[in-house]
Amino acid sequence: MFIESAKLFRKIHEQQQQQSSKTRSQSELATISSSYRKLLSDFLLPPTNEKSFTEVFEKHGTVTLLKQTHYRQLLALWDLCDILYFTDGDKRMTGLKLLQWLNKNDKGIHRFDLQGIMNNSRGPIDHPDFWPCIYKLIFRREFKTLIDFIKIAKNKQFTSKEASQLLDHLLRVIIDVPSIPRTTTATTLKNDQQDTIDKYISDWSKWREKVYKTAESLQKGGDRSILMHQKSLLNALAILHGQQKTILNQADHPTEAIICFILNNHPFATPHEIRTIITNELDISLKHQQDDNERFYAFGMMIKGNIAEALDCFRPDDWWTLVHLVDLFGLSTENLACNYISTIGIQLFDQEDVQQQLYSMEFRTFLILTYVRLLGQQSSLWKYGLDYIKTCGDLGKKALMNYIQCIPTNNSIGVQELLELCIEKDYVKEVVEIYKHEADKGIKDSYSKAIRYLYDIGNYSYLEDICELGIYQFASTGNNANLNHC
């Protein structure tokens, strides 16, 4: 994965240098993102012979299952960014795509024991999980399942007449809920798509009025024996109506609340509109749930548009994902840079530097240079760090001097690529440093090559220094292998 992604990264940035625009079209972004995502998926979740959770557990144990969970969260992050920022197509379908993404990555509905609820000795409606299960099915728009669930509960032996009548109110509302249309089919004409949306908005408005009137009638009174359940039913109706206070109170995490609020109030909002809606309409504090649901806190921040804060939650876990996501953000035509951490104080490479020198850098540069340091620690991947480091401007040049010290002794091809890069960019100091580094390792003709290079470009100050070093080494060792053919 690391080699293939470095090659893809190099290709992308070589193309950028050839183009006048610094951004890519949405279709190009989608293609690039898909390529990176496949590399990530193939690396993190290779195919296995195990067909079930039990088989994976028995063969690989708890550690593997935990890793799989973590890997799926990284893929979920990438898929979320795809929906919000990279995917081409009709942006009005973002709300539905977010719901599909949520249902795929959060199986919260599976925590409910449906059989246990239905077989409760006092009746399903008196089971403590009955209404939370109702809320969850509404949040996930599993209306067919909800209809079946209510019908079975109504007909259970211990369901009272009053409870059955109460459930009828919810059933009548759910049966009539209009389905959000999909408008992404290539054969659908633009005018037809708009007609479909207009019809849905009309039907949806009438249905919302029905929800409101049902709730209004229930608030006027009711049987005292089911008063508690009546309040729970009002909560269910409030969620359906898109009332933010109830949604925030009943959602398991901010991401679930945001997606429900959007679909029940602005079902055709684009990603940009969603960010504005969350800021202006949804009074949500994502901070208070960070400890309990850190990943879904991060996902909520991503939907809200706080990109850097969302990515920071993943920073200790996977530098590859962060580096390539942030690089894609930089290629986007949307103005996303304002959402990055503008500067960050960081020490480059040498953690034992007594001066503890700090550099201010862009978030992207910080991520890339950290990732490059990790690549530099493996001789087989060392040379691929060059593809990344040369996109970091002046700070990349500063880091390059430290990176040279990581040159593996057995990577002559990587050294040659580094030399070519430095010569191409007129990094004279770095070229000399590479030759010195090679000479210290006993590589033949290192000083001779440095002298010829400096002579050819007319840099006589460095030429004098390198000659002195070569003569000093010869005097110290008696070995003139690095000064042949001068």
From TrEMBL:
GO MF annotations in UniProt: structural constituent of nuclear pore
Top-level taxon in the UniProt lineage: Eukaryota
GO terms of biological process kind: mRNA export from nucleus; positive regulation of DNA-templated transcription; protein import into nucleus
GO cellular component entries: nuclear membrane; nuclear pore outer ring
Keyword Thylakoid appears in the UniProt entry: no
Pfam families assigned to the protein according to its UniProt record, in alphabetical order: Nucleopor_Nup85
UniProt name for this protein: Nuclear pore complex protein Nup85
Subcellular locations according to the entry: Nucleus, Nuclear pore complex
Function, in words: Functions as a component of the nuclear pore complex (NPC).
Coiled-coil intervals, chain numbering: none
Quaternary structure annotation from Swiss-Prot or TrEMBL: Component of the nuclear pore complex (NPC).
